[in-house]
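Much of our argument rests on the idea that a fold can be written as discrete symbols. Part of our work consisted of pairing the sequence of a single chain with a tokenised description of its backbone. We regard such an encoding as a compact summary of how the chain folds. The amino acid sequence and the backbone structure tokens for this protein are reproduced below.
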Amino acid sequence: MTTSQEELLPGTRRALLHRIGVAQSEGRSPSLVATVVRGGRAVWHGSRTSVEGHGPDEHVQYRIGSITKTFTAVLVLRLRDEGLVDLGDPLEKHLPGTGAGEATIVELLAHTAGLAAESPGPWWERTPGSLRPELADVLGEQPFLHPAGRRHHYSNPGYTLLGALVEKLRGAPWEDVLRREVLEPLGLDRTSSRPRAPHAGGWAVHPWADVMLPEPTEDLGRMAPAGQLWSTTGDLAKLAAFLVAGDDRVLSAETVREMRTPAAPPEATDVVDGAAYGLGMQVQSRDGRLLVGHSGSLPGFLANLTISVADDVAAVVLANCTSGPLLGSVGADLVRIVAEAEPRIPEPWRPLPEVDPAVLELAGPWYWGTHAFALRMTTEGGVSLDPLGGSGRRSRFRSNGDGTWTGLEGYFAGEPLKAVRRPEGSVSHLDLGSFVFTRQPYDKEAPVPGGVDPEGWRGIG
């Protein structure tokens, strides 16, 4: 991928370079490489290295660890979108005999199946996958540590099961399916299961001395769908663009939006930290900004992909050390630097292409009891309902094509909205999941639940 350094202002570029320079120096990483994405393409690339005269570029591979899980989740959601599975299906329905078949597909995707975090036996990230040739070797004798669906407990074996599900339903190895269905359509020709030159070597840096030790590079075998992949900042920039807008050759925009939506009950510490998990994607609130993406690590490597959809900015950061720089913080800072220095310029306002008079009639203020709301028309026949007081329940609604709408988010997600008309055709009220919205607070002409005092509004006399 060719990137233009001139896409960002000089001050922004220097701030980005300074941030990764501090990260590489203070984190004592042999090398660190980063890319910023805006408007669906890479607009800045930078790197720092301990090797004089050599700076890794956007074509150099690093191991990306658990960012691999996002790729595996894409493959599973393709199965769902094709109607081959339902996310609520127990694994046993499609992949019998694992010993963990009661876990549902969505629980595995969201790390809520209750499975152990790691595989039993020797540290799987630093030992050959041949030590765990079967799923039973990955899961062990007691795969479940928690009741299914009750808590978010990150599980590498869970994504191993999802990879096996993909292989079973596609009749081909996970790696082949990934290449055919995701890597080739998105043009990720520098992403692979095994390193391809040029690639970085993985190192452990001594915590108390400026010396290094090479880390082994193992094939993870059965556990490949949880963390096997190698990639570049150039390829992950393309992945970031896909995770924002979708690509109908792979997944629709609606499905990637589903991936970015929290799907797991957070732990108490997660609530404090503003962290959640979707379907193969991490979700975090940081400095008032909603960030999505994924982090990754394997011995010798750290990786991070951070996206702010609202700002239309993403960052990829890769390093070749076992520990050191906090790449999640670096990625968030790169996004913040660009978003604050060069805020997104909104699209020009344009009127709707067509107007349904029956919907236009509903636009304006409505009251649920004494709470004031505004209903506005949106694109494709949809509407939005927002509290006029600034805080409260709000939602966008999708048109059902029959004069009714369905809530898309928040408290009203999935709830039906309809306009109830009087016999002569005038609008009486809105019914939103049994809530009655009227044109005036407690309108006596509408069927307000519990009725309205016949003496009406009054002061203190």
Remarks:
- Residues 10-27 form the longest helix (18 residues).
- DSSP finds 13 helices and 19 strands in the chain.
- The mean pLDDT is 94.
- The radius of gyration is 26 Å.
